[in-house]
Write a structure and sequence with these properties.
Order of helices and strands: HHHHHH
Number of helices: 6
Radius of gyration: 16 Å
Strand content: under 5%
Helix content: over 70%
Length: 114
Amino acid sequence: MSLWLLLFACLLTCLGQVAQKFAVESWRGVDSAWTEKLRSPWLWLALFALGAGLLVWLLVLQRLPVGIAYPMLSLNFVIITLIARFAFKEPVDVQHWFGVLLVIGGVALLGQQS
């Protein structure tokens, strides 16, 4: 159950980050006041997802040692790299992919401890 909560916290955090990206992309080249920018649905989705992610993270910390839980948040780097590459069409070089594989290996090792 704890690992599912951890994965859910990661997904909510990643959703918040992606929503932030969409929010700022929608502002690019648009000369609008901050009051208009504050009405962005992407911004509100980001705030909701990050807030919900924080609450789920608190549940994770009740169940797992922080020394195990916190490093496993590095899954966010894996998820965001995949989203950057395939949703935003951003280039990802071989070194970056190698780093992603190392992160996955580290998370797998830590997952065996929990």
